[in-house]
Hints:
Helix content: 25-40%
Strand content: 5-15%
Number of domains: 1
Distance between the termini: 45 Å
Shape: globular
Number of strands: 3
Structural class: alpha+beta
CATH topology: Urease, subunit C, domain 1
Strand order of the largest sheet: 1-2-3
Amino acid sequence: FGQDCVNDTFYPLGCADMLQVANVTVHAAQMSLPHELEKVFDMITTDANKVMNLPAYGLEEGCNANLVLIEAKKIREAIALAPNRPYVIREGKVVVKNIRKTEYLF
């Protein structure tokens, strides 16, 4: 499972966001049951590693600690709501910090 359409003639709406690709896949393939959402999420995360065979991939001790933190409590929220991704971590170091500030004015 992959996607190479980033602002090209075939698909000019691509933005290199795999959660967006997952959202479109869920709609197009009608994969909205809980176990299907989990499969689609796996497609954009762990299944990609199965194809690419990246060394030291995962969350276990000794792995490279390459990950994107997603502000979502459930897979459904991650796919449906396009949540903020406050940190991107590569080899254990924060390489992107994207903090949103919400102010309640009431």
